[in-house]
Design goal:
five-stranded mixed sheet; Nucleotidyltransferase, domain 5; alpha/beta; 2 domains; eight-stranded mixed sheet; 13 strands; Rossmann fold
Length: 388
């Protein structure tokens, strides 16, 4: 059975989610959780990026119950990247809060649904079919997306199509693990549309007090261990401890920071050559008439002497350019990508008796096949070492 509350009571709850959460549901939210409650009340779009163990899912469950009990025609649709996360993370918190307040909330509670009446329910949906998120327009509707960095873009597009009514809202929560997508954009190029909230481990009560005052939240020991295990500059520390989007994606081979530092520092001397500047080598990537560009790079030791690119040039012009570079610099190696049309450039340069021409096929086996999938991977790793 669902309790019937007077409209005046519902209006008071709608206007004061913090009081409703504390007095009606018996919760004790801390400052950032209070900020989330107030944000959902005052804004149509709210995005929360957070560290691990901040209690964001706990308060999201109370947001769901607040929304349902504030309005007699309320609908809440929740989702997460996987069915497991839908059932065992956010809905576990919803079930726990409902069990503690079953008399006040009422309704029929299942694993991923709470039914309070016709057009008055909450439901958890997995993200396998975006179409399931379409068609919700009536009354007061709230979408809650947990672990939003991992949710497919098609789901966000479907949700956006349901935000047409005046009383529609969306709450995104998660660790900021991805550098693209709707969740990332909410904090960057689309920030004007969103109320954004950031929670670092150092914002939480346990870290502010440097002692465990709320055992359910991240602890000082866990943060100290994370610093030792991962390092403060690591992807994991940035995301899981600071609640920041990483400076690089997790699978980045050459961090942007290393590239930027390299442009501001002098290259090391090449001790293998009598010249302090080192040997000259040339790299050529052939494109011909496509949309790509032919690129020719001249490197002396660790320093780039020239890097030029050309669009829509035939292979004879490319060969002429390489030949002139060969006569000018007498390079110890001219390496040409010989996959596809580059093979003809290699053949013609050899026919012209240009010295030290080498065809490179990056799809071939690496010199260390147990370590690298192919030559391309091995060469990129060699490039990475130049930045260390």
């Amino acid at each position: 059975m669902t309790p019937q509350y007077p409209e005046s009571v519902r209006t008071n709850w709608a206007n004061d989610p913090v009081r409703f959460t504390t007095e009606t549901l018996g919760a004790e939210p801390w400052s950032k959780q209070i900020e989330i409650l107030e944000a959902v009340k005052n804004h149509a779009r709210v995005a929360v990026r957070s560290c691990n163990g901040s209690g964001k899912t706990y308060i999201a469950a109370h947001v769901v119950l607040w929304w349902l009990m504030c309005h007699p025609d309320a609908i809440v649709i929740t989702t997460a990247p996987t069915a497991h996360q839908v059932k065992n993370i956010l809905w576990r918190e919803i079930r726990r809060a409902h069990h503690q307040n079953a008399g006040a909330i009422g309704g029929t509670l299942l694993k991923t649904s709470l039914d309070l009446g016709d057009k008055h329910f909450a439901q958890g949906l997995s993200t396998d079919t975006p179409e399931r998120f379409q068609g919700f327009h009536e009354g007061h509707i709230l979408f809650v997306v947990d672990e939003a960095s991992g949710v497919r873009e098609g789901i966000f597009e479907a949700i956006e199509g349901s935000l047409t009514s005046e009383n529609a809202k969306v709450l995104l929560l998660g660790n900021p693990t991805s550098l693209k997508g709707t969740f990332y954009d909410a904090f960057h190029k689309r920030r004007g549309l969103w109320k954004t909230i950031h929670i670092s481990a150092f914002d939480t009560p346990n870290l502010v007090n440097n002692e465990v005052v709320l055992p359910s939240l991240v602890t000082p020991k866990w943060v100290a261990d994370a610093e030792q295990n991962w390092g403060k500059e690591s992807y994991l520390y940035q995301v899981r401890v600071l609640g920041d989007f990483p400076t690089e994606s997790e699978n980045t081979l050459i961090p942007l920071k290393m590239v930027e530092l390299a442009t501001k520092s002098d290259p090391p001397l090449d001790s293998t050559n009598s010249s302090s500047d080192g040997l000259v080598e040339v790299g050529v990537d052939v494109a011909r008439f496509g949309s790509d560009r032919t690129a020719i790079c001249v490197r002396r030791g660790a320093r780039i002497v020239s890097l030029d690119s050309y669009r829509r040039e035939d292979t004879m012009k490319t060969i002429g350019r390489v030949a002139r570079i060969a006569y000018q610099y007498s390079p110890s190696a001219i390496r040409v990508d010989e996959i596809g049309i580059g093979a003809g450039v290699v053949d013609r340069l050899n026919e012209l008796k240009i010295k030290h021409v080498q065809g490179v096929n990056v799809a071939r086996k690496a010199s260390k096949p147990g370590q690298f999938a192919n030559l391309r991977a091995e060469l990129y790793d060699g490039l990475r070492e130049r930045f260390v």
